[in-house]
Design a protein that fits this description.
Elements lengths: L2 E2 L43 E7 L5 H16 L6 E7 L4 E3 L5 E3 L2 E2 H7 L7 E6 L9 H12 L3 E6 L2 H6 L7 E2 L3 H10 L4 E2 L5 E3 L2 E4 L4 H14 L1 H10 L16 H5 L4 H11 L8 H5 L6 H12 L3 H19 L4 H7 L5 H12 L3 H13 L6
Parallel strand pairs: 1-5, 2-3, 2-7, 3-6, 7-8, 8-12, 9-10
Antiparallel strand pairs: 4-5, 11-12
Helix pairs in contact: 1-6, 5-12, 6-7, 12-15
């Protein structure tokens, strides 16, 4: 197993804790008249402690989206304002989805014992593949304690699953990486899941991870250090403008290729909200102020399809996501995707994907159990 070290640290004069781990020893060139102008002296009250829990299966891109903006924000100040520590579940290391092992500062059990006198301001959970296998009583207990203490909780990647498992998302909104959205929605029906790159409900923040993590972290930096500092960090990362939190993490396949039409977008959004419904199409589209003929004309001109064909395709694509990412039975998946019977579901699935649902589920299990990097 290859190892990628994350032990390089910056120390601060005001606290014995270690500052953000950084991937390189890059030094800040403060000669740039705008981007690297030295900041004023640090105000102690502005210093924040950030704990990052790294869960096996995480994405390197997601972890970089947390650590790098914080490191750069500290580098652009006279002293580090954001003091960061990293934590593993079982030990002081975690393995990413690419098979690299990352060295961390602490482990869950040891960190939990310190909570009574070292409460962080922000707690970030970074998780990725097979997150449902990472749920545990000790993690639930830790998250519940942090929530009671009023700590900001940030779920990144698939980590909303862990917050929901701890009972912290009941009746609330969150977002999660789209590959887990379908199975998450079926398991936690009392949680309102949104297709966004960033969402906060009180002191609970969530992001689908990957490149959207940079937006989450830049938003955090803006709230702590100000918008100007966040913009400088964004410039340093050559990222461009910070995206609005309500930006969708993905768009329905048809809208990626068709010229965006306001009516078409509204119809597809309505279909997405009713993927589990077995109601007739006329009942779903009856909520729109458009006639059946108008709706059919829009779909024919923009997508070359009928509304019924497109809606059925959406439900089948959701069933495929569930077959790939959940442990639900094929019967439960067919019901969750609005099919009246397993036989109807099997026939529709074969017509569209040229294989049986059981073939897709078997292939998914094989890929999960035999990763290329493990061979």
């Amino acid at each position: 197993m290859r190892t990628l070290s994350a032990k390089a640290r910056q120390s601060t004069a005001s606290t014995p804790a270690k500052a953000i781990p950084c991937s390189t020893d890059m030094k800040c060139d403060r000669s740039h008249p705008k981007t690297f102008e030295p900041a004023v002296s640090v105000v102690k009250d502005l210093q924040k402690t950030i704990a990052v829990m790294v869960v096996d299966g995480f994405s390197l891109a997601t972890l970089a989206g947390i650590l790098e903006p914080i490191r750069i924000a500290n580098q652009l100040c006279d002293e580090a304002r954001l003091v960061c520590t990293t934590i593993g579940l079982a030990g002081k290391a975690a393995v990413c989805s690419a098979g690299l092992e990352i060295d961390l500062d602490d482990c869950l059990d040891a960190y939990a014992r310190k909570l009574s006198f070292e409460t962080p301001d922000v707690f970030v959970i970074c998780s990725g593949e097979r997150v449902e296998k990472q749920c545990s009583l000790s993690l639930r207990s830790l998250l519940s304690r942090l929530n009671r203490k009023g700590v900001e909780l940030h779920a990144v990647g698939t980590a909303s699953w862990l917050l929901a498992d701890a009972g912290l998302l009941e009746g609330r909104e969150c977002t999660i990486h789209w590959t887990k959205a379908a199975s998450f929605a079926e398991k936690y029906r009392d949680v309102r899941i949104q297709n966004r790159i960033l969402l906060n409900d009180g002191k609970l923040f969530s992001s689908p991870g990957e490149l959207a993590t940079f937006d989450l972290c830049l938003s955090l930096i803006a709230r702590i250090l100000g918008d100007d500092r966040a913009e400088l960090v964004s410039e340093y990362l050559v990222k461009g403008l910070v995206r609005h939190p309500e930006t969708r993490q993905y768009r329905p396949h048809a809208l990626r290729h068709a010229a965006l039409d306001e009516n078409l977008s509204s119809i597809i959004d309505l279909m997405e909200d009713n993927l589990s419904s077995a109601r007739p199409m006329k009942d779903i589209l009856g909520k729109l102020k458009l006639s059946r003929r108008q709706i059919e004309r829009i779909f024919r001109n923009k997508l070359g399809s009928t509304p019924y064909q497109y809606y059925r395709r959406m439900r089948l694509e959701r069933s495929r996501d569930l077959l790939r990412s959940s442990d639900m039975s094929i019967l439960d998946i067919s019901i969750a995707c609005g099919f009246s019977s397993a036989s109807q579901f099997n026939k529709s699935f074969r017509d569209v994907f040229s294989c049986r649902p059981s073939d897709m589920k078997g292939l998914s299990r094989s890929l999960q159990d035999h990763r290329i990097w493990r061979s």
